[in-house]
Task: structure prediction
Amino acid sequence: MGRDHEEDPPSLEELLSRELPGVVPLADRGRVRPPRRRRTRTPLRPPDTPRAAFEVERFGERVEGRERRVDPRLLDRLRSGTVDIGIHLDLHGRTLDEARSDVEAAVARALAGGSRCLLVVHGRGLRSGGGPVLKEALPGWLTAPPLAARVAAFTSAPPRLGGAGALLVLLR
Result:
């Protein structure tokens, strides 16, 4: 014999109230859609920020550094002194502030003139009462803004270009 009356299945609200007693549904606020995102092209970083950290190594009086994504073979070429040097800058007799300003200006001048390499003669500090102040400061300037965004690598120059008293700086 058949059923005379079939029961309707329980509604979602009935199931929820049975399974989660005391829970009250939020008032219907309608469906809210998130705003559409516009696709825009933006640079990954401002041009004057460093691309990545530098690896800097010291070997006695010599120092070298390169931005981590720079091919180590470029540093080898720079170390050999076989690159075309566009600008020579001698920092002897400069204060720290004067020297930093001169280095920043030389880098800007090199880039504006299409040069990728400059020779910075800082001296070894042998006759300075305070030691090799410029020599110690220069790697820090090259690896911090604003110069870090423009510098790819640097190394103490080969002896014929000044040795431990000079740096060859390779620009991006």
